[in-house]
Write a structure and sequence with these properties.
By secondary structure, this protein is of the alpha+beta class. The chain folds into 3 domains: 404 residues, Glycosyltransferase (Alpha/alpha barrel), CATH 1.50.10; 104 residues, Immunoglobulin-like, CATH 2.60.40; 116 residues, no CATH class. The chain contains 15 helices and 23 strands. Strands 4, 15, 16, 17, 18, 19, 20, 21, 22 and 23 form a 10-stranded antiparallel sheet that branches. It has a 7-stranded antiparallel sheet with strand order 3-7-8-9-14-11-12. Helix 9 runs parallel beside helix 11. The longest helix is centred in the N-terminal third of the chain and has 24 residues. The radius of gyration is 25 Å and the shape is globular. It binds beta-L-arabinofuranose and zinc ion.
Length: 655
């Protein structure tokens, strides 16, 4: 029997998870595998270039020396270097290497993981404490020691990344050495912090330990870790972080997470906190907290998210701006903030089954996130503006005007990118119950295989597609092992995909956008469904309160946001100065360049403006001239600055 249904695009609020479970379950590590296409190419570059080079950077930048100093094995005279959170780069790299090992084991990766695990373990103090920089503080860094400067010391931030790495190593390699280190540190934190006698009521200035603790709870079954994470989420927003010289807003400490209506302050801090809170809400069945997070997510999406999925518009304090404060040229949009946004969206998707969360994750995964890394995988942007102007010069380390860089003094983004690529397969699909129907749900599309448990049976799916270049996604049931009756296969229809259709057993029907299209039947090997997503170019406009983009359009095709790069335009055209003709047709050209993208060609005008003595002109007087008609070429924003850095813009003025 076959029936098709779809879930509504929007609902009154997030669905309530059963305590301790989620409606959608992530698949076991390795159960989903990207086998080809655009993302596979990015993953290959990550494995072959970024991870090996990252291993060298940890040596040359001093991260490993710091650990050796703490372990007492560094050469005489070696000194601690780098930012206070240097250990976190090692942990993020370890996490990346572990997931990568899980994707495809290699003796080299195993060797590196063991080596670094040994370095980390050797640095750990007797009582479980671990932070190589703080362990060596002798007053020279202005901090006298452990937990003396929690707003800034990042001790628990490093711990959180260690926990995530340890869980990845345990799951992907089966080796428990790093997990043992993590457990000792988590036990130490658990005895030190809390409301109990002799405990300290304090939290770290930079969240992430919450997500790490919940992961550690899931891996070990030790409930104290979940309780500590929950305590930290509840303590925040009560002005608990004192003596830091900033407004509590910066630390997301102005209002409690369950009362907040938006995200604010330092963007990475804010979204790591909400992602961790979503984990807590999911595991404890706290529907009130989950609903509060849903409201914050909606507000972020409606007022503080760039069309690229970038988050955190202000350079000042790397922070979220006010609602609609989304400048293009001065956009900060740190790569780590997009990564945190993906992690939050994923957790909300698991807890609620609402397609909008997968839509946002996809927007980030195809635009704001990959823009942070070169096609070669090993050159990075920290900051991801939507416009880069002619005549721009770097004024500091993170400036995109430097072009992509191999590493940064503050190297949070590069290893964060590595772990995201190497864990990407895990975001493709889930199993569990969507709208009461048990089965498998596909959220992101790439050539892939997906293996999942349904009703005690094991099913294997093969996904064939050239997405995001093309909109056809064919899902074939390759194997059904064991007895199972009817189950439901659900495919996300992105919010932009109006007019999409699903063909099941030769029967084609239109399916609503922004929802899951589902087919329920007793599936057998060889059965297939085909989702057709319309890939016509779309012109989007910004809410008019986004002053910077007023009167402009953005070009989108499928999940990709496009940009004009100077290098593609005819001689004489200055990207800063173009106007596009929205009435003229946009044509597509498939090319092998830039990793194999679809270029867009459109009509526009450039030049002809009257040289003035100022940047303004009389409104009723001389107007900029009409300029020359020109053909403009746009590339996916994700691949900009792979041919050097030059003028670029996403929002295109129409007049
Ligand atoms: O503080 C650690 C990391 O450094 C943050 O997550 C980034 O925003 C950068 O400030
Ligand atoms: Zn970063």
């Amino acid at each position: 029997m076959t029936s098709t249904t779809s879930t509504p695009a929007a609902s009154a609020g997030p669905a309530a998870p059963t305590p301790g479970t989620t409606p959608l379950r992530p698949l076991a590590p390795g159960a989903a595998r990207i086998t080809g296409g655009w993302w596979a190419d990015r993953q290959r570059a990550n494995r072959e270039n970024a991870i090996p080079t990252g291993r060298e950077r940890l040596e040359s930048a001093g991260n490993l020396t710091n650990l050796r100093i703490a372990a007492g094995t560094a050469p005489e005279g070696a000194t601690v270097t780098g930012p206070i959170f240097m250990d976190s780069d090692v942990y993020k790299w370890l996490e990346a290497a572990a997931w990568e090992f899980g994707r495809e084991p290699s003796e080299q990766l195993r060797g590196w993981i063991r080596e670094l695990t040994a370095e980390v373990a050797a640095a750990q103090a007797e009582d479980g404490y671990l932070d190589s920089v703080v362990q060596e503080q002798d007053g020279s860094l202005g901090r006298p020691g452990r937990y003396s400067d929690l707003p800034w010391s990042h001790e628990m931030y490093c711990a959180g990344h260690l926990f995530q790495a340890a869980v990845a190593v345990s799951r992907a390699t089966g080796e428990k050495g790093l997990l043992d280190v993590a457990v000792r540190l988590a036990d130490h934190l658990d005895t030190t912090f809390g409301d109990g006698d002799g405990q300290r009521r304090d939290v770290d200035g930079h969240p992430v330990v919450e997500m790490g603790l919940v992961e550690l709870f899931r891996e070990t079954g030790e409930r104290r870790y979940l309780e500590l994470a929950s305590w930290m989420v509840e303590a925040r927003g009560t002005g608990i972080i004192e003596g830091h010289g900033k407004e509590p807003t910066y630390f997301s400490d102005r209002v409690r997470v369950r009362e907040a209506t938006t995200v604010e302050g330092h963007a990475v801090r804010a979204v790591y906190l909400t992602a961790g809170a979503a984990d807590v809400a999911t595991e404890t069945g706290d529907t009130e907290l989950l609903a509060a997070l849903g409201r914050q997510f909606d507000h972020m999406l409606a007022t503080k998210t760039y069309v690229t999925g970038g988050l955190g518009s202000r350079w000042d304090m790397e922070a979220f701006g006010d609602p609609y404060e989304l400048p293009s040229d001065r956009a900060y949009a740190e790569t780590c903030a997009a990564i945190g946004g993906i992690q939050w969206a994923w957790r909300m998707l698991l807890a609620t089954g609402e397609a909008k969360y997968a839509d946002v994750a996809e927007r980030m995964l195809h635009n704001g996130f990959p823009a942070g890394v070169s096609l070669s995988g090993d050159e990075y942007f920290y900051v991801n503006p939507l416009q880069f102007r002619d005549g721009s010069h770097a004024n500091e380390n993170r400036s995109p005007a430097h072009g992509r860089r191999g590493w940064f003094d503050c190297a949070c983004c590069p290893p964060n990118i590595m772990r995201t690529w190497s864990s990407l397969d895990g975001y493709l699909a889930t199993s569990g119950s969507l709208d009461g129907a048990d089965g498998v749900q596909l959220h992101l599309y790439a050539p892939s295989t997906v293996s999942a448990e349904v009703g005690g049976a094991r099913v294997r799916l093969e996904v064939e597609t050239d997405y995001p270049r093309e909109g056809s996604v064919r899902v074939r049931v390759a194997e059904v092992e064991g007895e199972v009756g009817e189950w439901t296969l659900s495919l996300r229809v992105p919010g932009w995909a109006r007019g999409a259709s699903l063909t099941v057993a030769g029967d084609r029907h239109e399916v609503p956008a922004g929802a899951y299209a589902s087919a329920t039947r007793t599936w057998a090997a060889g059965d297939a469904v085909e989702l057709d997503l319309p890939m016509e170019v779309r012109l989007s406009r910004a809410d008019r309160r986004v002053d910077d983009a007023r009167g402009s359009v953005a070009l989108e095709r499928g999940p990709l946001v496009y940009a004009l790069e100077q290098v593609d335009q005819p001689a004489g055209v200055v990207v800063d100065d173009v106007v596009v003709d929205t009435a003229a047709p946009v044509t597509e050209e498939r090319t092998d360049a830039l990793g194999g993208v679809v270029l867009l060609h459109l009509r526009g005008r450039s030049g002809g403006h009257e040289a003035g003595s100022a940047t303004w002109l009389p409104a009723d007087g001389a107007r900029p001239g009409a300029g020359q008609d020109v053909e403009l070429t746009a590339v996916p924003y994700a691949v900009w600055a792979n041919r050097g850095v030059g003028p670029m813009r996403v929002w295109l003025p129409t007049s």
